[in-house]
Amino acid sequence: MQIKNRKLEIKGDCQEISVLIGDFRLWYRVPKYLTISNMGDPFLAAALLPAMARGEELEFDENLPVSSKLLQNAYILQEIFHSWNPSLKIIPIKAIPETTNQSNDGIVCFFSGGVDSIFTFIKRKDELTHVVYIRGFDFPIDNESYKTVLDRNAEFVSRYRKVIIPIETNLRELSYYHNLSILLTQGSILASIALLLGFPRVYISSSYSYSQLIPLGSHPLTDPLWSNEATEIIHDGAEARRVDKIVRIAEDPAALSIILVCARDVVRNCGCCEKCIRTMIPLRVLGVKSPAFPDFPKLSVIKKLQIKNEIEMIFFKENLDLAINYGDKDLVNAMRAYLRRYEMIQLLKEVDRVVLGGFIKRTHRRIIKKPSFYRITMTPREYLF
Amino acid sequence: MNIINHQIKYSYDKIDISADIDGFRLWYKIPPSYAVSSSGDPFLAASLLPAMIKGSDIRIEPNLKISPFLMRNINTIQEIHHTWNPKLKIISVNADIHPAKILNDGCGSFFSGGVDSTYTFLKNINEITHIINIHGFDFQLDKETRENLLFTTQDIKDLAQLAFKLVNRVDPVSKYLMDQFSEGTRKLLTAYVNSGFIIPERVDKNLSESFNNIITGDLIYDKNIFAGKKLRSQTKEMLMNNMAENRTLLNRLLIEDSYPKEILGKYSGEYDEVINRHKRFAEFFGKKLIAVETNFYSFGYRYNLSRNLTQGTALASIALLLGFRTVYIPASYSYSQLFPLGSHPLVDPLWSNEAVKIIHDGCESTRTQKIKKISENKYAVEHLQVCFDQALGNCGKCEKCIRTYVTLKLLNVPTIAFPISPSSREIRNAKISGDIEEAFFKENVDLALKNSNIKLRKELLSCLKRYERKKIYKDLDKILFRGIISKLYRNLKKEKPSIYRVDTKYP
User: Could you give the strand order of the β-sheet that contains A232-236, starting from the edge strand earlier in sequence?
Assistant: First the structure.
């Protein structure tokens, strides 16, 4: 996989940096006033996982040198990803090593308006100078909605005299082009942008706490390894669980008014999807009203939740703990009833797996006839023996 | 928590580095040909977790400096442990700072002869110059103590467990001893146990004095009281010969035999053999062995911290003490098997200072891959020492021996390190003690599926199926009957109340 043909074009008040990664043209649109790194580092971050997925060597054009520190750490990164998912092969990287220089001055964190980035922002607001807002990081967003959310976030951070840097990029499309899940590439996507901007320190907000560390593209082990001589990348916030972060944010009315967690809507919180509910529960327990959310729905919504995996259940249990501590009896009863049902279903699945050899699962699949669409993610597909 | 009275004593055959931490003298003994750090870093590493469980700030005496590099990371280390187990509180460290200096040239690697340390050794063999072996139990009694029959505080290896057994009168001996103690001693012990073992001050001194009062009195032996205890041959001989004159020694032996894990017994001489074995290994590869003795684990047990929890800080404190440029800590689990552990790739490197770079090594490999790498070296394969039950040689019957033996067999590697091999029945009936063991076991099952050894594959699968069925029954009981059946089962078996140590995770 070759990295070559770097181009820089001015488009309005943006500069567009693009490069060929294999046969895919990757681009970034960055405000004109910022200095851009002319090294190959951002592209190494972007291309490493795709190259590993294909088992192809990465070769950098001679006018795209890469930081020696990053080249060394890229090997450890590969070991970690390969250990998590052996279908990601360890590949050689050919590039001219060099020492990187700082491009812009300041201390930055990525900011989406979600729980994690708001927590990091509040925690680090004394040292931060800029925040980076990436357009459509999780899902595509139309121009009007993008402007609404950007303005909202800009207004929030400007209260603390911080500057917002809007970034547009097709890094997500690059992941999908190679059939990689965003869960796997989220760390490298953020690292790529961080290395392109070349600030001396960049904070990536953690999604999970130290006690919930599962293989994930953005992880306290991997994030710092994307650093180079000029830019230090720090994984921040793993000392707090999600529920702890929400408790902290609830103390700040300005932060409460801009929170955006929704899985269904791109501009506001719908108030009934899984992600909205799991943020609204602690707010209800704390007795805090947020203008960013509609009123808490009837408790029967808990019954209809569809918690699909262990991690979402961890968040659910954290919320239940909080509800118990604050004595919200009705909510606790509703949540406990759901938990019991969930545990029964898990038990049934286990019995099916161990005693019936997976018979029920296979029959269920045949009846539902769901086409299974599978992207490469952090862990290999589970198999039964 | 106060760290004071730091001393470095040079003698003919060792250097003794020690400090007083809240009334406990923590010491390390290393061979005399090495430089040692005179900074407070090793003692900070040793005392962080005890201070966190106690919730008490650390105060280090002014002449004992701490590295500023380490001080910057001490908060992150605490955050990680606190997130894993909220019972470990975040505390502050008050100390003077001064950058650390490199002391010994070279690269060290911790070495126990097991799979992990052998793998790390072979992988980094070109860089490593010294292998470091730690001896934390059954350490040799000082000559003076051996001549004196009375107990000292240094004789108590596991204060928390001992106090627990006494206070709960778990057996006739404990009941008897508690009844003999003064009211004051009983109160002190009970308060210590009820506090969650966080106030051990004066307990060990009081206990050893109480023991001495008892052993210098009449003979304590009674057939009924000591019925359940396994007495060593010397004790049995002395009882048979009715040695009334040597009462004190006999009483002491009786107490030691009653608490083999909690009280230091007579030195068995086994440690010297272990050291010689590792020395030969080092010399074969042209490296040097550093044998370190320490009472660190007794310090952890004073606060009822598990060995798993304190493992990382134990190794870090020794790495900082020796001041090598680089020190490797062999990993026990791969990146895909990570969970809260005392020695963890996130935490270990944070104990580095300006002089010493601590590297947590080997996470890129599973246990199976490590054994494959080791099998390339005939000498290393023969030298493997994995056994849970024995310090020298592999018993071939315990869980660790069985799982290592199985992997060797499936990889067609010579099993010379296992003179006694487990039988088919033993493999089938092997106990899987938890999720961690299950992960290793599944690695073997995976290997067996690719291997043509059908017999072994069947044995492993039947063992795994048995374990999974047991788990299902437990889960069924927990969810349908709220755990009543397990409780009844435990009561029927009349299981004694067991002590739970503070571990990395909150249960």
Answer: A93-94, A58-60, A2-11, A14-21, A24-31, A163-169, A130-134, A107-110, A201-205, A232-236
CA pair distance B186, B168, nearest whole angstrom: 11
Q: What is the pLDDT of residues B220-241, one digit of tens each?
A: 888 889 988 888 888 888 888 8
Q: Which residue on chain A is closest to B334 by alpha carbon? A: A83
Task: Please check whether residue A108 is in contact with residue A132, taking contact to mean a CB–CB distance below 8 angstroms.
Answer: yes
Residue A79 sits at the chain B interface (C-beta within 8 Å): yes
- Residues B396, B473, single domain; the answer is yes
H-only helix segments in B148-246: 159-167, 172-180, 183-194, 203-215, 233-240
Which of B258, B289, B319 marks a domain boundary?
A: B258
Query: A63, A14, A10: which is closest to A40 by C-alpha?
Result: A63
> Chain A interface, mutation test: which of B338, B350, B357, B505, most A Cβ atoms within 10 Å?
B338
Q: Is residue B370 part of a domain?
A: no
Residue pair B275/B13 in contact (Cβ under 8 Å)? The answer is no
Same domain, B395 and B461: yes
B282 and B137 in a single domain? The answer is yes
Q: Domain of residue B55: give its range.
A: 2-141+269-361
Could you tell me whether strands A24-31 and A163-169 are parallel, antiparallel, or unpaired per DSSP bridges? antiparallel
Counting the structural domains of chain B, the total is 3
Min CA distance, B485 vs chain A (Å)? 17
B311 lies in a domain?
yes
For chain A, 385 residues long, the average pLDDT of each consecutive 10-residue run is 95 94 96 94 97 96 95 96 94 96 94 96 96 90 93 95 96 94 94 96 95 89 96 96 94 94 90 91 93 89 82 88 92 92 88 84 80 76 42
Chain A: nearest CA to B336, how far in angstroms?
A: 5
Where does a domain end: B239, B258, B277?
B258
Instruction: Please name the residues in contact with B183: beta carbons below 8 A apart, sequence gap of 6 or more.
Output: none
Structure tokens at B82: 């606190």
Interchain CB distance below 8 Å, B346 and A82: no
Through-space distance between the first and last CA atoms of chain B, rounded to whole angstroms? 26
The partner residue sitting opposite B336, judged by closest CB among A84, A354, A385, is: A84
Query: For residue B487, is it within any domain?
Result: yes
Contact A221 B334 (CB under 8 A): no
Q: Are strands A66-67 and A97-98 parallel, antiparallel or unpaired?
A: parallel
Best of A242, A314, A338, A385 to substitute, by most chain B Cβ atoms within 10 angstroms, is A385
Q: Does B345 touch chain A (CB under 8 A)?
A: yes
Query: DSSP readout, A260-285?
Result: ---SS-SSS--SSSHHHHHHHHHHHH
Chain B closest CA to A70's CA: distance in Å? 18
Among B364, B365, B479, the residue with its CB nearest the CB of A343 is B479
Residues B351 and B436 reside in one and the same domain: no
Residue B369 lies in a domain: no
Mutation to test the B interface, candidates A216, A354, A356, A384, most B Cβ within 10 Å: A354
A232 phi, psi to nearest 5 deg? -100, 125
Q: Residue B258: left (phi > 0), alpha (psi -120 to 50), or beta?
A: alpha
Report the alpha-carbon distance of residue B278 to residue B288 in Å, rounded: 10
pTM (2 decimals)?
0.90
Residue B48 in contact with residue B347, Cβ under 8 Å? no
Q: For residue A6, how far is the Cα from the chain centroid?
A: 27
